């Protein structure tokens, strides 16, 4: 099976990527309906895709993340934040320039505009690279944009799933002290295996939070934990609007912000940062025939921390 992007409206040089040989591992993740109204009709989005280029330079290792197109003419595109382009095209469940639907990583081959393919460094295993292309950049970008990547800061990570475990690792690599705020059952692992410095601490002690939780959750306790000028960055969608008393923002001049994936330039920077600092996503490589079981496990949050599907049963887990 393959899906092809239309060649009628060519915006950038295109790469054909073969996903049928050794290295192909779209990562499976669950996106809430409310966060992705354009999701595919037939299932879960696979939007962290790696493979080998065929037609441009055979053998190059590349990846495709959540985007496969943008207008290339708006201010956001000019500022390298294509992810906020009003005409950004999602890799899955999006409408391409010609109106055809994009189908993500459930395919043997795909064609992508050169601009929307990332280079994967040779020292970065492809299966571990795949989770970076959405989860990795989703946590890396806000840490950078909101100035939470400075050594010595006290940053909290809320939620310890696919995004949260990568956030802990990035924060540590940036030289920032990381505190994990999560369920008691995960605290031991966060401290011993992921490198968190401590578990949730006292009010008024945090410079910022990255909140990776999806669904309803109270933000008020997190605001209380922030120092003056502290920043709470929301990354996960919720079904209902948040309820917040303004006084909790006014007192201490606190800020709540949001963030969604990242631009192409910043994503490549993140991939190179990860390779340089040897940051490893924790993954579980599965075969295609395990997908339904994996979906059931995802609904129970029973995965550490990302499934990577080996469509051709040719990958071996590297850790
Ligand atoms: Zn644009």
Automatic annotation (TrEMBL):
<dbReference type="InterPro" id="IPR013149">
    <property type="entry name" value="ADH-like_C"/>
</dbReference>
<feature type="domain" description="Alcohol dehydrogenase-like C-terminal">
    <location>
        <begin position="162"/>
        <end position="273"/>
    </location>
</feature>
<comment type="subunit">
    <text>Homodimer.</text>
</comment>
<dbReference type="InterPro" id="IPR029752">
    <property type="entry name" value="D-isomer_DH_CS1"/>
</dbReference>
<dbReference type="GO" id="GO:0009809">
    <property type="term" value="P:lignin biosynthetic process"/>
</dbReference>
<dbReference type="Pfam" id="PF08240">
    <property type="entry name" value="ADH_N"/>
</dbReference>
<keyword id="KW-0560">Oxidoreductase</keyword>
<dbReference type="GO" id="GO:0046872">
    <property type="term" value="F:metal ion binding"/>
</dbReference>
<keyword id="KW-0521">NADP</keyword>
<protein>
    <recommendedName>
        <fullName>cinnamyl-alcohol dehydrogenase</fullName>
        <ecNumber>1.1.1.195</ecNumber>
    </recommendedName>
</protein>
<dbReference type="InterPro" id="IPR036291">
    <property type="entry name" value="NAD(P)-bd_dom_sf"/>
</dbReference>
<dbReference type="Pfam" id="PF00107">
    <property type="entry name" value="ADH_zinc_N"/>
</dbReference>
<dbReference type="InterPro" id="IPR013154">
    <property type="entry name" value="ADH-like_N"/>
</dbReference>
<comment type="pathway">
    <text>Aromatic compound metabolism; phenylpropanoid biosynthesis.</text>
</comment>
<dbReference type="InterPro" id="IPR047109">
    <property type="entry name" value="CAD-like"/>
</dbReference>
<dbReference type="GO" id="GO:0045551">
    <property type="term" value="F:cinnamyl-alcohol dehydrogenase activity"/>
</dbReference>
<comment type="similarity">
    <text>Belongs to the zinc-containing alcohol dehydrogenase family.</text>
</comment>
<keyword id="KW-0479">Metal-binding</keyword>
<keyword id="KW-0438">Lignin biosynthesis</keyword>
<feature type="domain" description="Alcohol dehydrogenase-like N-terminal">
    <location>
        <begin position="38"/>
        <end position="121"/>
    </location>
</feature>
<keyword id="KW-0862">Zinc</keyword>
<dbReference type="InterPro" id="IPR011032">
    <property type="entry name" value="GroES-like_sf"/>
</dbReference>
């Amino acid at each position: 099976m393959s899906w092809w992007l239309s060649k009628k409206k060519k915006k950038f040089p295109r790469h054909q990527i073969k996903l049928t040989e050794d290295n192909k591992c779209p990562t499976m993740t669950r996106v809430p309906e409310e966060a992705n109204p354009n999701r595919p009709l037939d299932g879960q989005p696979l939007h962290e895709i790696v493979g080998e280029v065929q037609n441009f330079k055979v053998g190059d290792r590349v990846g495709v993340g959540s985007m496969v197109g943008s207008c290339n003419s708006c201010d956001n595109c000019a500022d390298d934040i294509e992810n906020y382009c009003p005409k950004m095209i999602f890799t899955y469940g999006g409408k391409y320039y010609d109106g055809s639907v994009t189908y993500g990583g459930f395919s043997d081959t795909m064609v992508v505009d050169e601009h929307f393919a990332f280079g994967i460094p040779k020292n970065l295993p492809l299966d571990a690279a795949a989770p970076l292309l959405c989860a990795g950049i989703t946590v890396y970008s806000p840490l950078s944009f909101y100035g939470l990547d400075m050594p010595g800061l006290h940053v909290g990570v809320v939620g310890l799933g696919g995004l949260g475990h990568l956030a802990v690792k990035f924060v540590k690599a940036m030289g920032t002290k990381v505190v994990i705020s999560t369920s008691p059952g995960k605290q031991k692992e966060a401290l011993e295996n992921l490198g968190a410095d401590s578990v949730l601490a006292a009010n008024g002690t945090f410079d910022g939070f990255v909140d990776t939780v999806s669904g309803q959750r109270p933000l008020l306790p997190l605001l209380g934990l922030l120092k003056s000028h502290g920043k709470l960055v929301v990354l996960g969608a919720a079904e209902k609007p948040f309820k917040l008393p303004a006084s909790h923002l006014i007192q201490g001049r606190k800020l709540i912000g949001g963030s969604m994936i990242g631009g192409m330039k910043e994503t490549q920077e993140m991939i190179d940062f990860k390779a340089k600092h040897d940051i490893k996503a924790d993954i579980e490589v599965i075969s295609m025939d395990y997908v339904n079981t994996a979906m059931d496990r995802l609904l129970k949050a029973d995965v550490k921390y990302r499934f990577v599907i080996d469509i051709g049963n040719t990958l071996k887990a590297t850790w």
